[in-house]
Every structure is written in structure tokens, then in C-alpha cells.
């Protein structure tokens, strides 16, 4: 999406240049043309392209262009700059072309983290989307239960991310954490996320489900609420089963919000950083080192700016491409 | 086949939505007309079984179905909004009630779907999805879905209200033909007097949650028993003027005229004048004259609606034929033939109340 923004920005800039000229020319011809002058002119048989145009409105776009350039384009270009150079000191740098991209994309550690992150995102989507829809369907539609359910469901969303990590770090501990202690002592299963890779993975996954399923549920609930009551009555009159009602009325009308939910949850889970960093720090071993954790290790820990820059750009492009594919597929299938 | 609503009353959140509804609907079509918020949809939902009445009974074919779930009843419902299953094709939409009805023979489904689609004029759209159809086609699909399965009670809740004018005319004619041969009870609700008059079916006038009157719609239009019935059946809206009756004469906004016919009211009355009965040229010797000021002229093409201001800040709308131009602020004279004026007493009962109408009203 940012990629599209970039294109837009460049389009805006060139538009700005050409229209600025047009404004000047327009001013010379009609010094007193008011802003709305192009519209209500009475020209019997006049054609659209002969009407005088006032393009000054383009100036209103300028603040956006400037702020996007400052906050997104220029920083991104810095990263691009890093990614094609080997920097020893501010004065001592060598242009290396695409070497960093080559080495990063061949790095087994990066590849392992990529597979791990993709697997994590897939599991997050498979768990959170159906669960969120199920919660939304079973939430009340009328009465006092509505605000109560909304507040209860929304609670995890109100907690800062690092606090979520801290909560789960303690909750899942075998000695003092309620969850970990229960699993170890009541269920009798040996569970220790600091030592066992699978346990660590499960902890991070469940934490994400706990934290973000409410978002899916709230989006789906909003979608469900927008379905007019007569649809449900029509299904009742036809004596349709609950499943058929869900399949043929609720699910089709959730398409839009579910597309957004899937995109949001994919992007967010693919870039997850804070919570696993707090809970496991990427461990044990590399079991929960997702791309973001590995990237911050290279960029901040080792200060390898070249590889980190190349890594960031590849990461960014991956999110773009997968999101684009998701969006295209989701909006086209079944139409 | 009969549908009886016996003493039905609906109260929700402390408000009365329906009161004292006693209706016996025979086979064939009945029109239900009422203004906005009259309780039409509530009555339909009670009849369908979607809403249990607070008290009273719903009887279909002599069987009390008040507490029978809508899933087990033989009803079909068409809504004002175009309600179809969005993920199913037109064919599957029409077939779905048949598939879900265990008593409908499987082998008949395909034939029935195609037959009903042909009648509704959507035979060549069967593979489309509802979202690919125009509004009129969507509503035809919804109506086809309701008509496909033979049901005891077919309810149509303002089915044409969301369609544009031309489609409405066309679909109305189609529906009239379809219901003519219907084997079940058909209840058709509308807020449009032209629609009720066009169907010319037995008509129930509903207002403020109560049945105002039942009977022949043309008769009710001509000689409305109450002000509520007259107002419901008048489009454009009825002009209402206050009057004082005294010794065979009526004083209305400073204009006095003798009471026509054998009516003998006394005291305060309300005069109802339909816009097309107001003219700005004298049409007969008995016409009553009102001095007026022109406020606004709305031109629709075939008619001009002239808004007049009468003494006492009363408004009067005249429907004049053709396109006519007026200057707002100019004086004019409004002419009304007193023999065509509807006269109601303060309670809104027509004067003189004819015996037949009175019996209906209280029966």
C-alpha cells in the first residue's frame, strides 16, 4: 500500500509542476476568476474541454505531499541508500550494488526466520478469523448484553503491547504464573516456554490470539449488525437451519469486513515484534525469532546497516506483495 | 382458506403498536392501507408468526396457530427492501423455499422454479446473482421466491414502495393477475392510495394501530366514514378547513354557505376538500368563494399544484390541470363546490354518518 502511495506522490509532484504553470497562465487570462468559476458558466452547446479550468485546488494537496515526503519517502530512501553501500564510517563508504540483497536472501538464518514468520501468520489467520467470526455471531444483538459483551471483548485491545507481553510472560511461567502453574500441576503436562521450543511457540501464538481475536470479532460484529433484520426473518420463514443462515446470509455479507480483518491480521502478525520480544526474546534458541526480531538484532544489535537496509526492503516488499495477493484474491473469488 | 386475527393486541416497551385487531381474511387478495407508523408491518408480522401478539389469537383454517413457530407455518413474506440470499443465484433463491419444504416433491422443483420465473419475467436471469440485478429484477426475484411454494398465507409488505414509478406500474399489473388465481390468503400492504384503488380488492384501513374501516375501497374513497379514512385514501393530501355549523349554515373562515343535502350538523366541524375539487375559476352557481393569496405553484407537467393562503393563515392546495404559471404574492379566488365537500364532526366522524358505515365502524 505504501508502494502505491509512493506512486501517487510522484504523480502528485509532477501534477503540481504542470498545474502550477496552468494557474499562472489562467491568472494572466482571467485575473479575477473566482474559485468556482469553472462550474456554473452558462455555455449553450459548450464542450467540457473549452471551459476555463482553475487548478489552484492542487495546492491543497501540497501539505500531504510534504508530510509524506518527510515521514515516509525520505526515510525510506535513507534505507535504500544504506542497502547499496558498505559503510565503515560517515566518510568511508563503498558502493556494493545489490550484494547485500544477495547475501541477505541467501542467509539460512533469514530464510528460517522467514518460514517461521509465514507459518506464524498462517496459524494466526487460521485461528483468529474463524474464532473472531464465531464470537461475533454469538454476541447478543439486542438489549443490555450488547454493551457488556462489547466492553468484555474489547478489553485485550486496550492493553499496550509490551504490557501484553509482560502479562503473558508471567502468566505462562510454571512457578508463579497462573496459566503455566495450572498446566504443570493440575493438567500434569510438563510446560516450560523458556526451555521448550514448542511451548514457547504455543505461548506466543495463544498470546496473539488472545490479544487480537477481539479485533476480528468487533469488525465481524459491526458487519453482522449492518445486516437488515428481514434477512433473518426470511430465513426463518423458509425454515432455514442456523448453519444455512450463517452460510448464505451472514458470511456473504461479511466479505468486506473479513477482507479488512485478514489484511490487518496478516500485516500485523507478519511484523510482530514487541510481544515475543518481551516473552521469549526470540528463544529458546531461535524458536520464536521472527523476521522483525532478527532484523532488529542485525540493525540495532550488530549495527550492520547495509544488510539491515537490504533486509528491511525485502521485508517491506514481501508484506506488500502478500497483502496485494490477499486483497485481489479475496475481492475476486466467488463473484 | 381463511386467516382470522381475533382480538390481537401488541404492546412493546410500554407502547401500544396494535389494539383490538379483529379481522377475517378470505381467500384471495386483501389490501391493507395506512399511513406511516400505522402498524401495517406489525400486523403483517403477527399474521406471519414473526411476532407473537401480546394478547389475542391468530387462526388459520380454523386452527389456532398463535404459538406455532413461523418455521412450521405455511407462510411467505415479501419485504419492502429487496431481500434475497446474496450468495445464491436467482434460480437457487427461488428454489430454496421449495428445497426446504419436505412436502414439496423433489422432481417438481426445477419445473416450478422455471415456471414462476417465467411468470415474473426473470426467466433469462436465472444464473445471475441478486447483486447483478436491477432493483426491479431483485424484487421480482423476491416475489418469485415467495410465490414459488404454495402457501396458506402470502404477505406482501409494501413490496413496490422502493421501486421507481414506471416499474411500480408494471409490476402492479403483473401482481394483480397473479393474485387473481391465488389459492391462499394474500394480504398486501401499502401506503399509496393509488395502489389500493388500483387493486380494487377488499380493503382494510389501519391507523394508529387500530382498524379504522374495512370494505370496498372505491366506496370508502367516495364516502369516507371518518376523517382518518379520508386522509389515508387521499393523495395528494386532503385539505382541512375549520368550520362552525349553525342552523343549516356553515361558517368557514368568514365565508358562509348553506349546508348541502340533508346534513344537519351543529357546532364545530372540519371540512375536507380534495385538491382536485378546488378551482380558481367559477364552475357552478353554488360555488363558495374564498379570497386567497398565491404562495407557490408546483408544476408536475400534467398538473399544477397551487398553494394558496386563505384568511386566518390557512393553507389550501388546488390541483389544476396542465402546466400553468402563476406569480407568487398575487391575489386569487379559490372556488369550492360545497356539495362535494366532506364534512366531519369534531371526533372525525363523517356527517351525516350513514347507518351502514356506522355499523361497520363499531362492529
UniProtKB/TrEMBL annotation, chain A:
Q: Key word Membrane present in the record?
A: yes
Keywords in alphabetical order: Membrane, Transmembrane, Transmembrane helix, Transport
Q: Where are the transmembrane segments?
A: 57-80, 113-137, 149-171, 200-224, 256-274, 310-330
Q: What Pfam families has UniProt attached to this entry?
A: BPD_transp_1 (PF00528)
Which Gene3D superfamilies does the record match to this protein? MetI-like
Q: Could you confirm whether the keyword Repressor appears in this record?
A: no
Where the record annotates domain ABC transmembrane type-1, the positions are: 114-326
InterPro entries annotated for this entry?
MetI-like (IPR000515), MetI-like_sf (IPR035906), Sugar_ABC_transporter (IPR052730)
Its placement in the membrane is given as:
Multi-pass membrane protein
Q: Which family does it belong to?
A: Belongs to the binding-protein-dependent transport system permease family.
What is the name attached to this protein's record?
Answer: ABC transporter permease
From TrEMBL, chain B:
- Respond yes or no to whether keyword Plastid is given for this record: no
Which keywords annotate this record?
ATP-binding, Cell membrane, Membrane, Nucleotide-binding, Transport
GO CC terms in record: ATP-binding cassette (ABC) transporter complex, substrate-binding subunit-containing
Transmembrane feature ranges? none
Which molecular-function annotation in GO is an example for this chain? ATP hydrolysis activity
Extract the Gene3D superfamilies matched here: 2.40.50.100, Nucleic acid-binding proteins, P-loop containing nucleotide triphosphate hydrolases
Instruction: Provide the ABC transporter domain boundaries.
Output: 3-233
Concerning SUPFAM superfamilies, the annotation shows: MOP-like, P-loop containing nucleoside triphosphate hydrolases
One Pfam family cited in the UniProt record for this chain: TOBE_2
Q: What name is this protein filed under?
A: ABC transporter ATP-binding protein
Q: Which CDD domains match?
A: ABC_Carb_Solutes_like
Amino acid at each position: 500500500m505504501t508502494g502505491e502511495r509512493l506512486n501517487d506522490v510522484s504523480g502528485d509532484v509532477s501534477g503540481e509542476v504542470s498545474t502550477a504553470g496552468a494557474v499562472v497562465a489562467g491568472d494572466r487570462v482571467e485575473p479575477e476568476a473566482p474559485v468556482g468559476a469553472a462550474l456554473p458558466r452558462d455555455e449553450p452547446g459548450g464542450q467540457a474541454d473549452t471551459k476555463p479550468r482553475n487548478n489552484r485546488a492542487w495546492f491543497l494537496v501540497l501539505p500531504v505531499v510534504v508530510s509524506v515526503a518527510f515521514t515516509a519517502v525520505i526515510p525510506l530512501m535513507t534505507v535504500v541508500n544504506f542497502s547499496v553501500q558498505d559503510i565503515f564510517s560517515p566518510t568511508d563508504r563503498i558502493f556494493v550494488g545489490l550484494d547485500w540483497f544477495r547475501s541477505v536472501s541467501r542467509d539460512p538464518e533469514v530464510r528460517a526466520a522467514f518460514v517461521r514468520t509465514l507459518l506464524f501468520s498462517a496459524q494466526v489467520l487460521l485461528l483468529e478469523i474463524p474464532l473472531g467470526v464465531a464470537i461475533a455471531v454469538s454476541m447478543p444483538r439486542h438489549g443490555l448484553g450488547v454493551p457488556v459483551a462489547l466492553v468484555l471483548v474489547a478489553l485485550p485491545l486496550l492493553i499496550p503491547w509490551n504490557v501484553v507481553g509482560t502479562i503473558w510472560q508471567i502468566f505462562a511461567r510454571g512457578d508463579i504464573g497462573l496459566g503455566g502453574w495450572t498446566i504443570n500441576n493440575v493438567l500434569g503436562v510438563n510446560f516450560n516456554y523458556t526451555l521448550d521450543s514448542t511451548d514457547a511457540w504455543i505461548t506466543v501464538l495463544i498470546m496473539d490470539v488472545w490479544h487480537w481475536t477481539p479485533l476480528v470479532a468487533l469488525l465481524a460484529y459491526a458487519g453482522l449488525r449492518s445486516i437488515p433484520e428481514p434477512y433473518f426473518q426470511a430465513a426463518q420463514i423458509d425454515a432455514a437451519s442456523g448453519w444455512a443462515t450463517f452460510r448464505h446470509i451472514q458470511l456473504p455479507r461479511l466479505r468486506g469486513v473479513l477482507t479488512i480483518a485478514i489484511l490487518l491480521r496478516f500485516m500485523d502478525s507478519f511484523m510482530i515484534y514487541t510481544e515475543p520480544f518481551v516473552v521469549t526474546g526470540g528463544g529458546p534458541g531461535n524458536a520464536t525469532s521472527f523476521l522483525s526480531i532478527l532484523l532488529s538484532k542485525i540493525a540495532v544489535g550488530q549495527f550492520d546497516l547495509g544488510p539491515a537496509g537490504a533486509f528491511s526492503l525485502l521485508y517491506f516488499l514481501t508484506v506488500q506483495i502478500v497483502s496485494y495477493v490477499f486483497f485481489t484474491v479475496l475481492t475476486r473469488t466467488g463473484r | 382458506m381463511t386467516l382470522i386475527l381475533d382480538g390481537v393486541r401488541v404492546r412493546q416497551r410500554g407502547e401500544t403498536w396494535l389494539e383490538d385487531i379483529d379481522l377475517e381474511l378470505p381467500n384471495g387478495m386483501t389490501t391493507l392501507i395506512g399511513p406511516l407508523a400505522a402498524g401495517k408491518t406489525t400486523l403483517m408480522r403477527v399474521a406471519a408468526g414473526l411476532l407473537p401478539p401480546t394478547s389475542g389469537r391468530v387462526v388459520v383454517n380454523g386452527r389456532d396457530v398463535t404459538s406455532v413457530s413461523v418455521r412450521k407455518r405455511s407462510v411467505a413474506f415479501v419485504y419492502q427492501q429487496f431481500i434475497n440470499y446474496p450468495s445464491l443465484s436467482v434460480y437457487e433463491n427461488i428454489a430454496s423455499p421449495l428445497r426446504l419444504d419436505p412436502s414439496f416433491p423433489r422432481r417438481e422443483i426445477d419445473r416450478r422454479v422455471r415456471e414462476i420465473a417465467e411468470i415474473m419475467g426473470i426467466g433469462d436471469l436465472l444464473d445471475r446473482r441478486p447483486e447483478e440485478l436491477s432493483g426491479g429484477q431483485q424484487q421480482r426475484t423476491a416475489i418469485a421466491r415467495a410465490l414459488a411454494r404454495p402457501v396458506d398465507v402470502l404477505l406482501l409488505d409494501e413490496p413496490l414502495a422502493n421501486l421507481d414509478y414506471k416499474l411500480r406500474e408494471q409490476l402492479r399489473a403483473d401482481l394483480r393477475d397473479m393474485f387473481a388465481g391465488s389459492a391462499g390468503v394474500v394480504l398486501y400492504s401499502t401506503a399509496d392510495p393509488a395502489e389500493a384503488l388500483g387493486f380494487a380488492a377488499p380493503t382494510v384501513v389501519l391507523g394508529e394501530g387500530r382498524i379504522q374501516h374495512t370494505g370496498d375501497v372505491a366506496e370508502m374513497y367516495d364516502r369516507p366514514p371518518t376523517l382518518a379514512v379520508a386522509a389515508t385514501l387521499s393523495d395528494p393530501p386532503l385539505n382541512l378547513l375549520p368550520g362552525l355549523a349553525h342552523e343549516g349554515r356553515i361558517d368557514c373562515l368568514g365565508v358562509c354557505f348553506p349546508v348541502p343535502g340533508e346534513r344537519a350538523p351543529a357546532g364545530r366541524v372540519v371540512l375536507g376538500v380534495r385538491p382536485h375539487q378546488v378551482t380558481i375559476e367559477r364552475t357552478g352557481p353554488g360555488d363558495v368563494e374564498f379570497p386567497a393569496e398565491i404562495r407557490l405553484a408546483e408544476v408536475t407537467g400534467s398538473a399544477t399544484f397551487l398553494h394558496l393562503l386563505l384568511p386566518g393563515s390557512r393553507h389550501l392546495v388546488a390541483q389544476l390541470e396542465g402546466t400553468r404559471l402563476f406569480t407568487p404574492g398575487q391575489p386569487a379566488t379559490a372556488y369550492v363546490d360545497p356539495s362535494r365537500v366532506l364534512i366531519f364532526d369534531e371526533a372525525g366522524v363523517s356527517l351525516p354518518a350513514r347507518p351502514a358505515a356506522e355499523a361497520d365502524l363499531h362492529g
